[in-house]
Amino acid sequence: MPHFRGRLPGKMFQARIVGPEAPVKTWRLLPILALLLAPLFADTSLPLPNPGFESGLSGWDNAGDNGMSLASPSAKESGAVGLRVTDASDRSGSSLTSAKFPAKPGATYRARCRARIVSGSGIAVYLFYLDAAGKLLNSGKNLKELSSSTPGWQDVECAATAPAGSASVAVNIHSYGKAIVTADFDSFSLVEVGGPALVPSKTAPAPQAGFGPLRSDIKGRPFDFSNGDFEKDMEGWDVEGDGDMSKAVPEAARAGRLGLRITDDNPKGGSSIASPKFPVTPGKEYRVRCYSRMVGGGGGIGLYVQFFEENGKPIEQNPPDMMGLPSGKDWKKVDYGTYAPEKAATWRIWIHSYNSAKVTQDVDDLVLYEGDGSQTERPWAPQYRLRPEEKARLTAADLVGPDGIVYPDFRRAGVPGGIPELPVKVDLTGKIKPGSDISAVLEREADALGRSGGGVLFIPAGNYRLESDVLITNHHVVLRGAGTNKTRLRYTYAVPHGTVKFYRLKPGDSFNIVEIHANPLDLKNLILEADGKEVGRKNWQVHWGNTYSMRVGRSAIFDKVGAGRHTITGKAVYANGEVASASIELNVASAPIEPPTILPSQSGAISFAGAIDGAKILLAKDGARGDLSLTLADASSFRPGDRLELEAPATPRWNDLIKNVCAWGRYRVNQYEVLSVSGNTVQLSQALRLEFPVVDGAYVRKILPLEGGGIEDLSIEQTENLWINTVSFSRTWGSWARRVHVRMAGKNPVYFLDSKFGEIRDCVFDDAWYKGGGGTAYAGVEVSYDCLLDGLVTYGFRHAPDFNWACSGNVVRRGRFYSSDAQWHSGWCNENLFEDCIIQPDGQDGDYGFGFFSTAPEDDAHGPIGPRNVIYRCDFKSPKDGGILNGMNEGWLVLHNRFVVEKGVGLSLRLSSFDHLIQGNVFVFPNGADSAVLIKDASCVGNEVISNRAFGAKAMVGGRGKAEKETGNELLPYDDAPRPAPAVPSIYEWQKKTYPLK
């Protein structure tokens, strides 16, 4: 879900907004007590050199380190590198010491960093105090050990008072002499606690990782608002209707004395805090900059930009000009802007937690400013607006269409050669009884069938139960029923409240992975212990959703208790404090057991799952768009026929380029077959669609996908509200679902993840149990490539059709999607096709009410969407805008579609959404519209609007930006105009016929 936090954006305005006639409260006199208690002292940041190891070990002393501490990209949490300490010796330890700073006896100093245990335990951050001769005064004291029971990155803080005789202080990182440990460190800081505030911290904020001076890089004119940093308590802020949820408190300060903390624990009402109003000029850009973090709760708070007419009447914006505030616990910069509409006289910002949200959020260092309109160029060198005559620019990734438009290559979407018609090899008729649980039989028979070469496993007509999931890990196994209305499966697996279950484990087993399950209702923590020692923990967070499971690897348990038989305990902690637990005795092996454990990326009632095999191998040369080969640092492990996965990580360089603030996820990824190997160069089966640069640490790794798996001609219903997909295809190639009817999916219905050449054909997906956000009720594919969804019908999903994370080359065609919106939902999805689909969102159950939607770069849960996606001959009917391109989108093709829009515009473009071709579309506005296409920002350049017809709009193109080409368009009175009928009804079929694959 994007920055709307899973709630309908339009419904946010149903909360009570501070009215235009409401007086702005001004604190005319600060309380006398507050003046008397104003601090004379504040933490003083010491200028620690190279705190994030971006310059290697420069500024750090590694004498006595034994070569154990190295700057490495693998150790980073932010930036390009972090520090990795690898101590494999049980006799000596590491030692890395920062620069030294003057210290005053009796003063307190505090060191902080971010760190994680990769393996083992026994490493700490120290504060060293030294006398004038450099002698260490506190050997073995003043330390904070990293917790080996905390998974992932953790906050580490060490504070201590300087002893008598102290002359200097330094930070030291040291692994114990007998310890075996690998740990990563990043983002150090060192402060004198309560030092004299010689410089007001709001004028010159203390240096912090990733934070620059508040106003120095603002391109525009800041408004004179003296309390955007809340140092004057709530002076100047309007809190009418806030319900005492918003307060200036020291705990919320990013720098200085105070910051804003919003504490909304009311399930029905939301907070409300508004700035003063400032004058605006229609057509100019107005922006807000601040820093924010989520302290607790489930998220659900937005920062709105509001405009008012001269008489104070609010000017409604649809969708509202807003962005959701960050959901992470670390401070993040927020920078959001929009353009003043016609008749606007004043503006302000309004911070509001949604009525159904429960959240605690901090905000500080807020600046309102008028933008200078300087961004009128493309943010990077464009690649995707191609002309047929530019033959030197065309690559193997491009195909010239019948209309002279250069398209991406969609020919490979779906199972190569089509879904095969296979004979039945194993018939379960007479072996299973209607009404019985057949999960164990299905898995056992599927395993035997796969080991014998594969084939069709036939399930006769009847109603059957699946009391546990069915996992298939062998190639070419196809489950086939007698028909969707004849073979019916009911997945009834449940975890009763008050119990914990161990997944696929029995007493005495050896294992590679321990997975536990618990009832998800009001679940807050999952914990795994070995002999009473915590080895894994999963804590509630904003995208927790309907989480019910947790996995912990063998190595984490081995590092804690060693090899042998141990008691493993799983615990589930609930919101009311109730704890459920269960224990099992398992054998902890000293090395991974063979064969390796294969589990799906997301669990399914029925799962087909492949594996990853091999280490990451860096590219030795950039992979350019259109390339058919890759040069690796070492290609010796690859052979013809191998499958590889190619990925370019989201580095700070790349995130800055595309303005991505999302700190997780996968963006530039694809999978290929190796055709041949010559030296360190591998020839690929397809051309690259994106660039994979060496500077971003692009790499490949070998994968072992399951191939040729299928499920067809049956119905599956899930009876429990449990976050499990109905059918999961994880790490598969050339696999399919055909004529499958899913009723009440637990998470997603039939879902491809980390897969290629998948196909969903002539299926029906009818509703889902859980629609509370967090990656659920989607009909589409995720981190998958060249998949085909043909003839799919869905009812009542949140996002359908939907592409998630790095999807590329996928085709959705001839589909009908009712009560859901179309989504490019996260992670730079590129070169995908929607074709000949009917899409009718209703703005309920989590869909946003737009015909289609692409997530925004400032969306910290999803990030922006990539280039050259194609929407061809689709029919959208939506209560809000027909489509939104939310920023940093390049070269989309929006061709021959109909958009019927109840309220809003046909297409809305913002924030460097550039070089799009909008051609041959029909826009229908029963209630009228100011424009068919809204180019909101001057940064949206190079867009062509050609030969479209708009029924009921005042203008074809509106907004602050201008179309580069606007020709052949017609404005007509409202009429229920039919869909366009291009000469070629299917680009996908035309490409396959005109450019047949060899």
Could you characterize what this model shows?
The two termini are 40 Å apart. This protein has a 25-stranded parallel β-sheet that branches. Strands 29-39-49-52-55-58-61-64-67-70-73-76 form a 12-stranded parallel β-sheet. Strands 40, 41, 42, 43, 44, 45 and 46 form a 7-stranded antiparallel β-sheet that branches. The chain is built from 5 helices and 78 strands. With 998 residues, it is mainly β.
Total E-strand runs: 78
- Can you summarize the main beta sheet? 25 strands, parallel
Class derived from helix and strand content: mainly beta
Helical stretch tally = 5
- Radius of gyration, in Å, reads 29 Å
Proportion of residues in β-strands:
35-45%
Please estimate the helix content. under 10%
Overall geometry comes to globular
Low-pLDDT windows of residues = 1-41, 196-216
CA distance, first residue to last residue: 40 Å
Short précis:
With 998 residues, the chain is mainly beta.
Topology:
Blueprint: H1 32-36, E1 44-45, E2 69-72, E3 82-87, E4 96-97, E5 101-102, E6 108-120, E7 123-130, E8 143-145, E9 154-161, E10 168-175, E11 181-193, E12 220-222, E13 246-249, E14 259-264, E15 273-274, E16 278-279, E17 285-297, E18 301-308, E19 314-315, E20 322-324, E21 332-339, E22 346-353, E23 359-371, E24 398-400, E25 406-408, E26 424-427, H2 439-451, E27 455-458, E28 462-466, E29 470-472, E30 477-480, E31 487-491, E32 500-502, E33 513-518, E34 523-530, E35 533-539, E36 549-553, H3 554-561, E37 564-574, E38 579-588, E39 604-609, E40 611-612, E41 617-618, E42 629-631, E43 643-648, H4 652-658, E44 668-678, E45 681-684, E46 699-704, E47 706-707, E48 710-718, E49 725-730, E50 732-733, E51 736-745, E52 750-753, E53 759-761, E54 764-768, E55 778-782, E56 788-790, E57 793-795, E58 799-804, E59 811-813, E60 816-818, E61 821-826, E62 833-835, E63 838-840, E64 852-854, E65 870-872, E66 875-878, E67 883-885, E68 893-895, E69 898-901, E70 907-909, E71 917-919, E72 922-929, E73 933-935, E74 944-946, E75 949-953, E76 957-958, ...
Parallel strand pairs: 26-27, 27-30, 28-31, 29-39, 30-48, 31-48, 39-49, 47-50, 48-51, 49-52, 51-53, 51-54, 52-55, 53-56, 54-57, 55-58, 56-59, 57-60, 58-61, 59-62, 60-63, 61-64, 62-65, 63-66, 64-67, 65-68, 66-69, 67-70, 68-71, 69-72, 70-73, 71-74, 72-75, 73-76, 74-77, 75-78
Antiparallel strand pairs: 1-11, 2-3, 3-11, 4-10, 5-10, 6-9, 6-11, 7-8, 7-10, 12-23, 13-14, 14-23, 15-22, 16-22, 17-21, 17-23, 18-19, 18-20, 18-22, 24-25, 32-33, 33-36, 34-35, 34-37, 37-38, 40-46, 41-46, 42-45, 43-44, 43-46, 44-45
